[in-house]
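Q: Convert this sequence to structure tokens.
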Amino acid sequence: MSPAIHARPEESRLREQIVEFGASLFARGLTAGSSGNLSVRTDDGWLLTPTNASLGRLDPARLSKLDWDGRLQDGDPASKEAFLHRAMYQERPQARAIVHLHSTHSAAVSCMCGLNHDDCIPPLTPYFVMKIGRLPLVPYHRPGDPALAGAIRGLAQKHSAVLLANHGPVVSGSSLEAAVYAAEELEETAKLFLLLRDVPVNPLNAQQIDELKSAFSLDI
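A:
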């Protein structure tokens, strides 16, 4: 399909935003090679980074434009992980954007044994609670396995983010900016989790988490 060249002003803004955040994530080492993908809802579907595209070198006119059923409408062929985004959007109407990364520390945690599959990183900081909440672990599926969509769909109603075993995080947000910030907070907390794994830790308790929920009207 030919690249989109006459997008509406709001869609053009979202395309540029995807390029901007993709370049920032790539430059800071939060994605490597052609790994990871970003998406944003539009009025008539959603935009997604193309298959085999580096987030550091995106072209706004060549982003994949899909309809609500996941069919390509314009741009380059979509990432093979498009179904991850679609499953999250279907279950979370409040999600306006999704970030999927293979960021080093989050991916490292996803490979560990003995994780709590319902909450695989403890609430070490209030910022992790505020931006991520509870982080469930999705069992391993090969890349591109359509069954992974069902696994995500079963968790997405209650969780804004999930961690794919031996893979990496999928994080949604009320905007692309919010989703990127949440993915960054997850990566930093994963780093803390790995740094502290051999020493006793003092995560936030239930009362402290409830206080955050009340103070910031968190839906977690």
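The mean pLDDT is 95.
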